């Protein structure tokens, strides 16, 4: 099979397209024939040497979409459409940047859809993280207000769509004034240009602050996101678009505004139940729901895709179609 191997951290030319043996699943694991996989900041962090606990050489990829190719226990039928994500993929065992990947059956989500594979491939990690952030991280409910910091990322656009679906009012930020229209076109009620301090802009709209904040940029903007949130509101730390996620000399009483709660969401396959995935796939198929634009690459252009991800060339999700 063809696979993308990172032998050691470094620039994009460290990503090598190799021919490897097709992996064999052990009991409790399944082999997936990969049709498409999305790119994620986690893989950029691994390539740059910022991720901990990764062993090399490694086939990257914390998600994959395709069909069951083999299940030694006979639980899942060959040909069944599935998505898989996280759980050590691309970090402690080989991930989805390959024509075949082997994963624990416990982190496989079955589904049925006639959507194009490139559309399906954009969803596993993005939909799981958006849904988990809004439910586990924020417990967002209809009628509440949400601020998304890093709104034109694939995760930001998907989260805005899910939040609107819940019945929330959404504000979202972009550092690029030319992308304000992108936010508006994807249902954001209050697009905001981020100059590093959006709390004053937010409080012009919501004098007491928003009910909930989703931090996707990282620790550089977290204090300002907290400042934009009301007393008894909640901020969920989920993303690290800035590649910075550590707060030095963290003293909670000084760092956290009075009464504002800070939570975090790290992601797990179980946070995306099969019925939730199927619900949104069906709605995408009817045109009732969109998780944002998709930009597609072949496997032999993985370096171009990683370069575009690192430079923020596109809004929306980058997907490799095999």
Automatic annotation (TrEMBL):
The keyword NADP applies. Residues 10-320 form the Enoyl reductase (ER) domain. InterPro entries: ADH-like_N, ER, GroES-like_sf, NAD(P)-bd_dom_sf. Gene3D superfamilies: Medium-chain alcohol dehydrogenases, catalytic domain (3.90.180.10). Transmembrane segments: none annotated. GO terms for molecular function: NADPH binding; oxidoreductase activity, acting on NAD(P)H. Pfam families: ADH_N (PF08240), ADH_zinc_N_2 (PF13602). It comes from the Bacteria. Keywords: NADP, Oxidoreductase. This is Zinc-binding dehydrogenase. It comes from Streptomyces qinzhouensis. The lineage of its organism: Bacteria, Bacillati, Actinomycetota, Actinomycetes, Kitasatosporales.
